[in-house]
Amino acid sequence: MKNIKDIETVPSFGDLEGLIGTWKGVKGWSLISVPNHRGGEGSPGFELIVQNYTEILTFKAVDAPVENEGGGDKQFVGAIEYEQVIHDFDTKELIHVENGMFMYLDEIVTESGESKDAPYSIARNGTIPHGNSILVLGLIDKKGGAPSIKEISSMPSEVDQNGAPLGFFDQFQSEQDRLTVPDIVINEESKIFNVFDPNDNLIRDNKGLEFMDTVHIALDSENEGTVGNIPFLQKHAKATNVYSDFWLSTVKLPMSDETYQQLQYSQKVGISFHQKFNGKQGLISWPHVTINTLTKID
């Protein structure tokens, strides 16, 4: 059992501590569907936007533990401030800014000084200038070897697609074709993107690498979290849920004992607009997917 005085004065970040520093990535991709009334108000549709991006992601530790009072219990939060700045790969235009906190929550002590586990050991809150805010919670674990990255779909669910007019979702196929036709690829490493399974890009980024260990951070707004929207977005294209995975890995350099730090993430945000088909109630949830592979530079 830890000494309560140590907990009160020295913040604990658990395995989140490896995030602290500055990260750079040039293999980022964003895929988002937004409302588009091509045929007027009576014929609503959607526009699919796919962008290749570069990113600087900075994490800075809060030097003291943040104390939450709970009657007889106390929670000491290890907080890490983050800032994410994203530019379009080709135009260099600023396309996303986000800031918030990653929090290690697993330092809870009772009035008698005994340790308790938090329901969720980590959390992240963030704010986005479009007018969204998120709170997601989850778990963190560390293992030897490479990340285990699963397939992720960028399409609305089969239930949400059911009954759609023929060709309604063809924009996904045309975008996939555009990004994989060899004669228009500018930079083969950065311009090939799997529209239907964005995580395939992360898996390809890891091919041939020797991984020493990986910390997996899994966060979900369904874990007692929240997603907020300003009134305009609430009416036209509200974010309803957020799920994200982060993989923090130590990678060994070829033919060397030296290592470097790699951070990958995959995030899916559900955005609701457009009435479901076949007279079904409710709106279609469109996944906004972002992925990137970054390297620690400081």
Features:
13% helix; ten-stranded antiparallel barrel; 298 residues; single chain; mainly beta
How are the secondary structure elements laid out?
Elements: H1 4-9, E1 21-36, E2 45-61, E3 66-70, E4 73-88, E5 94-104, E6 108-109, E7 115-116, E8 122-128, E9 132-144, H2 158-161, H3 170-180, H4 188-191, H5 199-205, E10 210-220, E11 226-229, H6 231-236, E12 238-252, E13 259-275, E14 283-296
Antiparallel strand pairs: 1-2, 1-14, 2-4, 3-4, 4-5, 4-6, 5-8, 6-7, 8-9, 9-10, 9-11, 10-12, 12-13, 13-14
Quickly describe the structure:
Helices cover 13% and strands 50% of the residues. The chain has 6 helices and 14 strands. It has a 10-stranded antiparallel β-barrel.
Widest sheet: strand ordering: 1-2-4-5-8-9-10-12-13-14
Q: Tell how many strands the DSSP assignment holds.
A: 14
Mean pLDDT: 92
> Helical stretch count?
6
The portion of residues forming beta strands comes to over 45%
